[in-house]
């Protein structure tokens, strides 16, 4: 059992106390980062670094009189790690800026133009709610996030996705 005194020392910057804390929690932190790296296909070292930042941030607010301090620190490390995964995924799905679009190759052949026109024709035939759901999902949102943005539940979003799929099947077989 680790005394509350050692947590207080670590919180206020005592090097030996922090090193002892790091040594004690390193195996669990490494396992946590490796687990989430397998689940999310992110780099384990990057996840571990984010987890350590979360743990050290939580160390400043730790209350040793409530619960197990190690569990508190590990919980905050996990939250920071998962927030980082969410940030990285959103960044990958962000819309391109004008400078990035200008840097893309501008040569389009006739098939690209036809495809673009076909997509516009299909999406133009959708109902406004279906168009809003489609736009939200194409921006990389989850069904729950899209539902929150549109003021409905994720079940409603799932319904609209099924309707869009059904309409696409009808549209593609007709054309």
Automatic annotation (TrEMBL):
Keyword terms: DNA-binding, Sigma factor, Transcription, Transcription regulation
Q: Which residues form the signal peptide?
A: none
Which branch of life, at top level? Bacteria
Q: Which one GO biological process term can you cite for this protein?
A: DNA-templated transcription initiation
The yes or no answer to whether the keyword Transcription regulation is present is yes
**What InterPro entries does this protein map onto?**
RNA_pol_sigma-70-like, RNA_pol_sigma-70_dom, RNA_pol_sigma70_r2, RNA_pol_sigma_r2, Sig_transdc_resp-reg_C-effctor, WH-like_DNA-bd_sf
**Coiled coil (residue ranges):** none
Query: Known NCBIfam families for this protein?
Result: sigma70-ECF
Q: Which family does it belong to?
A: Belongs to the sigma-70 factor family.
Q: What does this protein do?
A: Sigma factors are initiation factors that promote the attachment of RNA polymerase to specific initiation sites and are then released. Sigma-S contributes to the protection against external stress, thus playing a role in cellular fitness and survival.
The entry's protein name is RNA polymerase sigma factor SigS
Source species of the chain: Capsulimonas corticalis
